[in-house]
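Running this now, will post back.
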Amino acid sequence: MLGVSDFTTLIELKHDKTQIFKKERTKGRANTWDFTPDFIEGVSQCLGQKFALDRSYKMKDFVNDQRKMLDKNLTLTIDPKTVFIIGNRKVEFPHDLDSIHHFKSQTFELFRRNNRNVDIVTFDELFERAYHTVFGDIIQQDWFTDDNFKIIE
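Update: finished.
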């Protein structure tokens, strides 16, 4: 998916149920967890699309969902931002410092903070950001497991 505003943004969507980590950890690794092929291949795909767009932007035609040609003079493509949306932290590795989820959470944060080319966000994180933007408030910590939680009263 290509997001167009003043600058180009590439968006790669996986499913909210796509696993980020393998079920079992490789024994030879300390304080880290193994990523699934879906996750690593998704990051790889983002990098490949970013590289391809950098190389071919001037030669490509872009159309919107109404099949209308976009004016590329209104949009710049300079080191296009790439966003990868995958999985659900609250389901796969909820924040818990006293469990194996802590290692997964640490591994995930280290990976995405040290990756300069792809912004990686989970569906639940995206929802929390959207909630804050729309309502101007931080969502309650247990929103995901609270059966009484309602977005709109």
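The longest helix spans residues 37-56. More later if anyone needs it.
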